[in-house]
Design brief:
By secondary structure, the protein is of the alpha/beta class. It has two domains: 86 residues, 2-Layer Sandwich (Nonspecific Lipid-transfer Protein, Chain A); 293 residues, Rossmann fold (3-Layer(aba) Sandwich). Helix content is 42%, strand content 17%. A seven-stranded mixed sheet has the order 7-6-5-8-9-11-10, with helices on both faces. Strands 2-1-3-4 form a four-stranded mixed sheet. α3 packs parallel to α11 and α3 runs antiparallel to α15. The longest helix is centred in the C-terminal third of the chain and has 19 residues. One of its GO terms (molecular function) is cyclopropane-fatty-acyl-phospholipid synthase activity.
Length: 419
């Protein structure tokens, strides 16, 4: 009968079916095996139990958890590690659908449960996020025109792109659902003279954003609330609504109610821009996919990613007529690469703030997401719509030219560098 190590190696070689895998494995007893030379990645498997888990499930999930818990050592560039993990993943059976882990016991996407999930992810430490986010503390996909911009410029380009899409005008009442640390509202108030309301469930973000508006002299025009979007009281009040990187926390079963809230608070003829991660394939919505267990457990408890068709369908069901759809998938890959580089540059400070385990969670999660966006495992869509409940045509531009400051462009290529 084969020992566990031999069974594991034979299983991998059979699953690879001759494919190149630049990996050297160092086992717990010191034995090493190279699938190809030179090896771009050295993986140290520190226990036989880890090998048993790899034989039973998704390699991306198992290795991600093992890395966080210190059960596996990894040497190599992130992009090489992730490519090797993807290769290993093809050699192992996929887990059965369903059985998504639930952490806190209460019903998923209740107000209490959502508040706990948001607290877990966003209330780590403002100082921790400040280490690797841009100067405006923006934790969502940036917007690149050349791919060579630094993260500060790219995030401000995202602000400008969103504001132009929404056709903001002085005096517009703008609602930002999931306003984060307040960067977009501050930008809109300073550059477009809007009156704004921002809501967040994160206490850390709330206090930071509120203090920011006071510090920048915007408190008389921008109100920050610690509030669930379902509790926004206004009706037919806002000229424009924006939601950036928030609806991933809503839950697919609640999208109709989410867009229903937007419909309720938006004036007739008002515009909404929803910016969020979407599934790249329609069947990715309900089934288990590689890496999802890791993200559920360590990163975004109860996060759910809908496909674009569902977003458009649910918006249309709430009289939100879609005007424009843009896929920013390569932009998010590049954004995440910037974040990982900046986090690694502040590794010692980050570990001192949040501990080595949480540092490893964020590092491997963001590197994995960068790889996943570039490999088309996920997408990022901005969907622009107008509230149209009557028969008369609401005003809108004839063309998209108003969205762009210039017509220059370059092909999207991620700059992995030495990541």
């Amino acid at each position: 009968m084969k020992d566990l190590r031999s069974h594991f190696l034979d299983h991998v070689k059979k699953g690879l079916d001759g494919a190149h895998l630049p990996l050297k494995i160092r086992f717990w007893d010191g034995y090493t095996y190279s699938f190809a030379e030179p090896a771009a990645v050295v993986m140290e498997l520190r226990s036989s139990q880890l090998v048993s888990r790899l034989l039973m499930g998704s390699a991306l999930d198992v290795l991600g958890e093992a890395y966080v818990e210190g059960e596996v050592g990894l040497e190599g560039r992130y992009q090489d590690i992730l490519a090797v993990a993807e290769g290993l993943n093809r050699a192992f059976p996929k887990k059965k659908e369903g059985n998504r882990p639930r952490w806190f016991g209460r019903k998923a996407h209740s107000k209490e449960k959502d508040a706990e999930s948001i607290h877990y992810h966003y209330d780590v430490s403002n100082d921790f996020y400040r280490l690797w986010l841009d100067r405006n503390m923006v934790y969502s996909c940036a917007y690149f025109k050349t791919g060579e911009e630094d993260i500060d410029l790219a995030q401000e380009q995202k602000f400008a792109h969103i504001c132009r899409k929404l056709h903001l005008e002085p005096g517009d009442k703008l609602l930002d659902i999931g306003c984060g640390w307040g960067g977009l509202l501050a930008w809109a108030a300073q550059h477009y003279a809007i009156e704004g309301v921002g809501v967040t469930l994160s206490e850390a973000q709330y206090h930071y954003a509120k203090e920011r508006m006071e510090r920048e002299g915007l408190a008389d025009r921008v109100e920050i609330r610690l509030q669930d979007y379902r509790d926004i009281p206004e009706r037919d009040h806002f000229d424009k609504v924006v939601s950036v990187g928030m609806f991933e926390h809503v839950g697919r079963a609640h999208l109709s109610a989410y867009f229903g809230v937007i419909r309720r608070v938006l004036k007739e003829g008002g515009w909404v821009l929803n910016h969020g991660i979407t599934a790249s394939q329609q069947d990715d919505e309900n089934g288990h996919h590689s890496g999802s267990d890791f993200i559920d457990k360590y990163v975004f408890p109860d996060g759910e990613i809908p496909h674009l068709w569902r977003v458009v369908h649910e918006m249309a069901g709430q009289d939100l007529e879609v005007l424009d759809v843009e896929n920013l998938r390569p932009h998010y890959a590049q954004t995440l690469i910037h974040w990982v580089r900046r986090l690694e540059a502040h590794k010692d400070e980050a570990i001192a703030m949040v501990g080595e385990k949480r540092y490893r969670i964020w590092a491997i999660y963001m590197a994995g997401c960068a790889y996943g966006f570039w490999r088309n495992w996920s997408a990022l869509h901005q969907v622009l719509a107008v509230k149209q409940t009557g028969d008369e045509l609401t005003a809108r531009p004839w063309e998209r030219r108003y969205q762009y400051a210039d017509d220059s462009f370059r092909l999207a290529e991620p700059d992995w560098g030495e990541l």
